[in-house]
Design brief:
By secondary structure, the protein is mainly α. The chain has helices at residues 13-32, 40-46, 51-57, 61-82, 88-99, 104-111, 116-127, 130-133, 142-162, 171-184. The N and C termini lie far apart (42 Å).
Length: 190
């Protein structure tokens, strides 16, 4: 959890603008270079904010990245809750569409090996949503069921990404196949 300090001046437009600028700068830099080469000073310059402002809201570049993940998760959960198709296929399809985004920085965060921790945390948080827990009637098993849905969905997506582009099916078909696997096990792909 990032150490953002937004409670003091929550209604101050400068606070939210500074935080947005810092997160935007992080995304710009993620698209251009590896995370281990990104320095807080570079984020500060790119934002542009002063050093005190940066450290007032974030303790480190990792905290900024965590805040970016929280924003993306919030966006995905909002889309999930507004989705007209309340099926497992719809939820998995939304996840796949988010992974396959056109934003270079988001795509890198969700698919590059160097950001696998980012993607794993985001996936775990997304699939822990009440939406996915609703597919299990027994509360004592809901967490295990959402973990299973996450593991299968991520595994199928990663295998799909490793195929040559001309051998990949579209994301709707991928979501449908994943749902069959989730609901019917190995019989679902036959």
């Amino acid at each position: 959890m990032p150490k953002t300090n937004t409670n003091k001046n929550r209604n101050d437009p400068r606070t939210s603008k500074s935080i947005r600028d810092i997160k935007r700068a992080m995304l710009e830099l993620v698209a251009e270079e590896p995370f281990d080469q990104i320095q807080a000073e570079e984020i500060i310059r790119t934002a542009p904010v002063n050093k005190n402002t940066f450290y007032k809201y974030f303790g480190s570049k990792q905290d900024v990245l965590d805040a970016v993940r929280e924003d993306l998760l919030s966006e995905m959960i909002n889309r999930l809750n507004k989705m007209p198709d309340k099926s497992l296929r719809g939820g998995v399809g939304l996840f796949y569409n988010c992974l396959n985004t056109n934003s270079p920085a988001r795509y890198k965060l969700l698919n590059a090996n160097e950001y696998s921790d980012f993607a794993d945390k985001l996936s775990a948080e997304f699939f822990a949503a009440d939406f996915f827990k609703s597919f299990c009637d027994m509360p004592e098993h809901q967490e295990m069921v959402s973990d299973f849905i996450a593991d299968v969905s991520i595994g199928v997506y990663r295998r799909w990404k490793n195929k040559p582009k001309d051998e990949r099916q579209d994301l709707e078909k991928l979501a449908e196949m994943t749902t069959h696997i989730l609901m019917d096990g190995l019989k679902g792909i036959g």
